[in-house]
Amino acid sequence: MQIGFIIKNLRKEKDITQEQLAEYLGISSRAISQWETGKTMPDISQLPILANLFEVTTDYLLGVNINEKDKKVNDIVETAQKHWSRGLNDKGAEILREGLKSYPDNPKIMLDLMSCLWRVRNFPENKENRDALTQEVIDLGEKILETCTDTEIRNSATQLLCFIYPDTNHIDKATKLANTMPNRYVTREQLLKRIYKGTKRFELVRDDLCALISDLCHDMLYNCAPLDDGNRPYTAKERVAIHKKYLDIMNIFFEDGNYGFFREMFALANLNTAFCCISVDDCTQAISYLNTAKEQAIIYDTKYNPDDEYTCILLNGMKFGGVLRNTNKNVCKRLVEEMQDSAFDKIRNNDDFISILNELKKYADNY
Fold first, then answer.
1. What does the alpha-carbon distance between residue 286 and residue 19 come to, in Å, rounded to a whole number?
2. pLDDT digits (tens, 9 = 90+) for 291-322
3. Do the domain assignments include residue 188?
């Protein structure tokens, strides 16, 4: 459909004469007539003005089939997700970059590409390109905030920018963006829990508990970076105690041993606890935690099904859900690689250590 024909229909729907439209745009009525007869077309700078006047999108003015466009965009995003959900972020980014050639300003594609590249830049093989990838993530995020009006997409872009700005020494930008976001007491989840009742509220609280478990455990294990004076906040023995508390909390929440989505975290936490035990020369305990890590990793890599459900009291009936992977290595392979660390030299010749390592190697693979 010609743009002139669309303008003519919209003008008549609004009961506006050619003269009135021409006056509004600051051009001659003859120019309007030539648009509507298909002899000429509006200047590109006039499209946003026309769209605003007629309360439509510029895509509508240009005769773009919105439903068809949305379908194509969703197809691009879903195809890319099939790859990066298995840790193949490079392939996902490649698909999304191609998608942007056809839809250069689409916020969904930009956000997913931003997310892919944020993970890709940390891969060892991309060390030389890390700065360029970092800047690409920033450019995409800033473009989203400049052009996109979708609140959820803007919030996700803000999150990633807050993650990545500090890497370029832009703490001030990250802080400014973070301060535009609501505090934890006025988040979507908190508000919806107070709006709904009955089954819907139960499901919302259950989902939020799942997220809180993840946040709590993450903060417990990773809050050990050096302070301003260069010293760590916890001693080696205290780090062992914190890791044990983490495992205790996991076992309280998942009292039946059905860790679901959290089984990967549980396996890696046992590995990290073994690291801590080695640092205080508790080799017996280190072997015990490595054995648990092995058992949980094998179960996760061979049996995880996103459609399976939790059976513990607090999350009962909730599906495990899909997994977003930052690597294409399965958990067993990651454990095998971590166990090459020199910290384990103290027990490397231990028969149990050798047995654990050999068992993991049977399942070590890429997703």
1. 84
2. 999 999 999 999 999 999 999 999 999 999 98
3. no
Tell whether 189 is covered by a domain. no
Per-residue confidence (pLDDT) for residue 288, from 0 to 100: 97
CATH number, position 52: 1.10.260.40
Where does a domain end: 181, 212, 247? Answer: 181
Q: Which of 181, 204, 233 is the last residue of a domain?
A: 181
Verify that 224 and 312 share a domain, yes or no: yes
Average pLDDT, the chain: 91
**230, exposed or middle or buried, with CB in 10 Å at 0-12, 13-18, 19+?**
exposed
Q: Are residues 49 and 79 in the same domain?
A: no
Rounded to 10°, the helix 151-164/107-120 angle is: 20
Q: Token pair for residue 320?
A: 């495990």
Burial class (CB in 10 A: 0-12, 13-18, 19+), 322: exposed
Q: Which amino acid is at 320?
A: F
Kindly report the number of other CB atoms within 10 A of residue 112's CB atom.
24
187: in domain: no
Closest CA relative to residue 365, chosen from 302, 303, 307, 322: 302
Q: How many domains does the chain contain in total?
A: 3
The pTM assigned to this predicted structure is: 0.76
Asked whether the beta carbons of 51 and 58 are under 8 A apart, the reply is yes
Count Cβ atoms below 10 Å from residue 56 Cβ, excluding itself.
13
Q: What is the largest CA-CA distance in the chain?
A: 91
Contact criterion met (CB below 8 Å) for 294 and 274: no
Beta bridge partners of 329: 366
Which structural domain range is residue 132 located in?
66-181
Q: Does residue 254 form part of some domain?
A: yes
The reply to whether 240 and 265 lie within a common domain is yes
**How confident is the model over 135-146, as pLDDT tens digits?**
999 999 999 999
Specify which residues 309 forms β-bridges with: 319
Q: Residue type for 195, please?
A: I
**Which phi and psi (to 5°) does residue 120 adopt?**
-60, -40
